[in-house]
Structures are given as C-alpha cells and as structure tokens.
Amino acid sequence: MWIYLLKRVLAIIPTLLGITVVCFFVINLAPGGPVEQKLAQLQFAGAFSGQSSGSGTSSAISEEVIQNLKKQYGFDKPVHVRYWLWIKSIVTFDFGDSFIYEEPVIDVIVSKFPVSLQFGVISLFLTYLICIPLGIMKAVREGGRFDFMSSVVLLIMYSIPPLVLGILLKTYFTGGGFLSWFPVGDLYSDQYFDKGFFGKVADRVHHFILPLVCYMIGHFTVLTFLTKNSLLDEVRLDYVRTARAKGLNNKMVIYKHALRNALIPVITGLGNFLGLFFAGSLIIEKIFTLDGIGLLGYTSVINRDYQVLMALIFFQSVLALLGRLISDFAYVLVDPRIDFS
C-alpha cells in the first residue's frame, strides 16, 4: 500500500508539470495580453489628448516605451524562459503580482476564497447527507409510490439550468417586483457583527439559501440515482441471496452486507471535496452578486491576467490530483478486499 502511495505521489509531479506547461504556453501565446492592453490605453489616451488640444491625432508610441512595458510585465524574455522563471518562483509560493489588481496574486485569491469555500463545503456536506439516505430509501422501496414521486421531482430538478433557476429565484424572492424574502450580495448583512452567535448563524443562513439551492440542485439527482442503482445491483448478487437464505432479515442484509459494497462507486466523488476549496460558479456568483473564485477566473481570462489565471490552474490541478489519491484510499476503507499493492 505504501509503495502504491509513493508511486502515486511521484506521478503527481510530472502530471502537474504537463498541465502547467500546456496551460502556460496556450495562455501566453494568446493575443491581447497585458502589454497590448496597456499600449491600447496609451494610444487611446494620446489620440484623445491630441484631438482635445487640436494638435492632430498622432498617438504613435516609441519602441523604447514598448520595450519598457514588456520588461515591466515580464514579456521581454522568450516564453520557455518565462515558464522556467514561473516554476522557480512557485517553489517559494510566489505567484507574482496581478496585472489587474496590482497586488500579490495570493492576496487576490485569498480575498475571494471564503465565498467559494463556504458554498462548496456546505453543498458537498448537504448533498451527501441527503442523497445517500434518499437513494437507499428509493432502492428499498423500488417501484413504489415514494420511488416514483421522488424520481419525478429529482428529474425535474436536474432539468432546470442553474442560470434559469437563479434568475427565477432572484426575480421572485429578492424584491424584483414580487417577494422580498432574501437578500442579494455578500455573505452577511451590515449588522452581522453586532449580533449574537445564533443571530449570526441565522443571518448567514438567510444569505446562503438561494445561492446554495442553485449550487446543489444539479448534484442531487446524479448522486441519489447512483446510490439507488448501486445498491440494487448489490442486492441482486448471489451473496445477498445466500444471506437471505440463511434467515437474516431484510434490514440486516441491506445495511450490513449490501450497503457497504454499494457505497464504493459513491465514494469516488468524495475525492472531489478538495477541489471545492477552489470551486466557483460564474453564473451563480454573477446572478447573486458574490465575489468568489468563479468570477475571479472569468475576470482573469477576459483581462488576460496571466498570473492569477496560472495560480488558479495550479491550485485546482494539485487539489484534483490529491483528490483522486484520497478516493483510492477511501475505496480501501469501504472495502478491505481492494488491494493496491
């Protein structure tokens, strides 16, 4: 087992390098970088100034200014040299400065981190807490009224796009001409710090409900049906029939024998919980005016903020690779028969 762990950890390094090499070269070779954007601003300012003063519209920029801008933004070196310098800097956890925010990249990410972290962790916890018992109940009552009605509700939930749901919730429940039950924007109200513990909890819940519904609605159906179908597959196997033939009651057969093996496919998704630390939904954050990682990533792409974009890719890649490793170990905890050695 430990040999397998060592191999997987060592495999993370070349995989991560491959991801960052491809992303770095694609991002840096894309047109419209920070140098071009700065030049466009200077040309516009020069043309506007010349037009205002009546002295012509010449907005030519000298080669010296262009070279100074390239040096300022680090584009005076070939792309492979810039990648090597970037690799050396992240070893010391230095991701440089954001071109847009003009402050360290780490500080920018940390400022947006709480929004995505809170919604990601809470949605993961609630999804597994609700969907696994619901899937078990649907499997036990397969073909019954509860199974049919819950399937209809889940499929309707799955068919609703988060964008449409978010717009509807915001229109009808946040004062958009109808009900004013929930606030929009931020994670808490202005009076948050003046309240007691339970008041703070209620304030957070009040702000979380609508965005959290949009975060979770798409995951409910998949995980519930996965749990149900996995348990039904196990119940039909020979060892379950043998357990029933020995006289064990149905609850003992399902919850002690079949359920543990049925959870193996469900465990696969648990490794994704690390990725939730940097998860973000651009649509949800935009609709509900939340300044999180999703909106930061979109802004970085639009404005060619390479430093922030590469830092987000790096962190998300590391967490995704570690999550896959954690999933493998979760398999062993659920089913000791699995041996990676």
Distance separating the two termini: 5 Å
The whole-number mean of residue pLDDT values reads 80
Q: Which structural category do the helix and sheet elements fall into? A: mainly alpha
The proportion of residues forming helix, as a percent range, comes to over 70%
The biggest beta sheet is recorded as: none
Radius of gyration: 26 Å
The count of strands amounts to 0
- Number of helical regions: 13
- As for the CATH topology of the domain at 105-334, it is MetI-like fold
Strand-residue fraction? under 5%
Shape descriptor: globular
Mind telling me the CATH superfamily name of the domain at 105-334?
Answer: MetI-like
CATH architecture label of the domain at 105-334: Orthogonal Bundle
Please give the structural blueprint.
Blueprint: H1 2-29, H2 34-53, H3 63-73, H4 79-91, H5 105-140, H6 145-159, H7 162-173, H8 197-235, H9 238-245, H10 250-267, H11 282-287, H12 293-302, H13 306-334
Helix pairs in contact: 1-13, 2-3, 5-8, 5-13, 6-8, 7-8, 8-10, 10-13, 12-13
Summarize the structure.
The protein has helices at 2-29, 34-53, 63-73, 79-91, 105-140, 145-159, 162-173, 197-235, 238-245, 250-267, 282-287, 293-302, 306-334. It is mainly alpha-helical.
